[in-house]
Design goal:
single chain; 210 residues; mainly alpha; three-stranded antiparallel beta sheet; elongated; two-stranded antiparallel sheet
Length: 210
């Protein structure tokens, strides 16, 4: 039941399985001057009025029943955008594929930033633990140093394929420098965490900028 998460063939199988659903939803959105997007099981429908939105929801539920798929009500949201003083506004930002949009600003979802900070701290602690294990080996006459270079490559802007490079590329593509501001403190936090582990201090928490 279902498809393996992360497998290269999973996306192909998912696209084949919901091909008719995609065609039906895109046709419906186009007929109302709207937009339909899907990435695996994450759907986005942008429609101009409440009537079209209600009809779209009915169609989605109908197709999901036909395809033996379940809709996660906890992750289903209706976001209203309105023009106020010539500005697009919304009381609640739209969230899709790890980003938020409030009518003007595109940002990385705060939960994604917090998760990456936790991942960074775990990575530094893991490097410290490896260093300690190496120190217990008789062949090492001196206590090895923390592998700072590898940590920088994995968790800072010095690396080419990590979360920071992803954030900078997203800022470029979306044309919103606010994304860079979200991660501007990450370099300082990484160096602070490395120094803390080198000194053997306790872990501290960070506030994540939205």
């Amino acid at each position: 039941m279902g498809i393996p998460q992360g497998s290269p063939i999973s996306a192909v199988l998912a696209n084949i399985y919901v091909l008719e659903f995609d065609e039906a939803m895109k046709s419906f959105a186009d007929s109302h001057g709207g937009l339909y997007r899907r990435y695996c099981d994450d759907l986005l429908l942008v429609l101009p009025n409440t009537e079209a939105r209600d009809e779209a929801e009915r169609l989605v539920l109908e197709w999901c029943t036909r395809l033996f798929l379940q809709v996660n009500d906890k992750k289903t949201e209706r976001i209203d955008f309105r023009m106020v003083n010539s500005l697009l506004t919304t009381p609640k930002p739209l969230q899709y594929l790890g980003f938020t949009f409030d009518g003007r600003h595109k940002r990385i979802r705060p939960g994604s930033l917090a998760r990456y900070c936790r991942k960074m701290r775990r990575g530094v602690r893991r490097a410290k633990a490896i260093m300690r294990r190496c120190a217990e080996v008789p062949e090492f006459p001196h206590l090895p140093r923390l592998r700072v270079k590898q940590l920088y490559i994995r968790y800072s802007y010095l690396g080419r394929h990590n979360f920071l490079s992803y954030a900078f590329e997203a800022a470029r593509i979306m044309g919103d420098g606010g994304i860079k501001k979200q991660v501007k403190e990450h370099w300082r936090r990484l160096k602070e965490e490395i120094r803390r582990q080198e000194r053997g201090e306790a872990e501290c928490s960070y506030d994540v900028e939205v």
